[in-house]
Design a protein that fits this description.
The chain is mainly beta and 66 residues long. It is built from 1 helix and 5 strands; from the N terminus they run βββββα.
């Protein structure tokens, strides 16, 4: 099944049987954006962008929330 990145528009296939009924993260192969993808019976049901953390290291989860 074809998935289109919500950030860069790159299209890629999720053909493996694991993705027939799947809900979880998928990384764009082109721009590295993380997306939450839900598929049902081999068809894309929804795609949502997940927040990204820039190339910054955090000491604790409290810093991420601020």
């Amino acid at each position: 099944m074809e998935v289109k990145c919500v950030s860069c528009g790159h299209e890629f296939n999720l053909d493996h049987w694991v993705f027939d009924d799947y809900e979880g993260p998928v990384k764009c192969f082109s721009c590295s954006r993380m997306m939450e993808v839900k598929t049902v019976k081999g068809r894309v049901d929804s795609i949502n962008s997940l927040g990204t953390f820039e190339n910054k290291r955090y000491a604790s989860l409290a810093e991420i929330r601020d």
